[in-house]
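hey so i finally got around to running the thing on that chain from the lab meeting. sorry it took forever, my laptop kept dying and i had to restart like 3 times. anyway pasting the input first so we r on the same page abt which one it is
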Amino acid sequence: MDLQVWVLAARAVATDEAAALLTADETARAGQFAVPGARDLFVASRAVQRTLGSALLGVAPQQVPIGRTCLHCGHRDHGKPRFLARQAPEYSVSHSGALVLVGYARTGRIGLDIEADDRRTDLAGLIPRIASPAERRRLGRVPPPDLRRACLRLWTRKEAVVKLTGHGLALPFTRFSVDEAVASADEPVPDWPDEPVWLRDLPVEPGYTAALATSPAPAEVTVARLTSLAELRVRRATAGHPRPEQSPLRPAGLDRAGDP
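ok and heres what got predicted. didnt touch it at all, straight out
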C-alpha cells in the first residue's frame, strides 16, 4: 500500500473558486467565522475534501457525498469524515495554523494530524491528560528545552490514531501509547482495530509537527506541497509515482535524526 499526502496553504487555496465548491450548508457555516484565518482554514479544508472526492469518485465536487456520523456514538456531525460511496477509499484531513493536510489510502485505514508549533496551549501542563503511564515516565526524562517539542509529537501521533479509529476525543489519550512504531492500547478499548496501527512522523514544513497513522503499514508515503486545488487533481493521477518536487518517505524507525 502506497499513500499520498498533500500540504496546502489555506490562504492560497481558499479562493472564490474554492468557496464555490462548497455546499449551501458549508457556505453558510463559512460565513459564521468572524476571524478571516479561521474561515480560510474551513473553506480550504472542505474544498480540498470535495476536490479529492471528485477525483476519486468521478462526480462534481458539490455532489461528493461526505458523511460525518460517528460510528461509535451515532452523533451526526463529529465523526470521522468519509466518502459515502461503495468501496470508496478512506481519507483523513487536518488543519492548524495556516496549513491543511489531507491524504487518502486506496486500501486500509488512515489518520492524519498537523499542529502549528506556536500554538499557545500549555502542552506540558496537559501531560497527565494525554500521556499513558509509560509515556509520562519517558517525558520525565526529556530535557526541559525539548519538552514542548516532545509533547507536540506525542499529541499529533495520538490525534492521528483516534482519527484512524474514529474515536476522536471520546477516547482518553491516557489509555493508549504511541511511543513505538505501532500504537498500543494499554487497556481494553472498545472497537480498537484488530490490525496493527502503524505510526510515523511527517516532515511537512518548518514550524509544524505532523503525524500519520495507517493500517496496514504503507510501503511508501509521498508528501507534496500544493499551491492550488487544480494541482491535487493532476497529482492524484500520478500517486505512487512522485514527481521530482515530491519527497518519498520510506518506512523507518522512530529513533531517526530529529526525533526527541
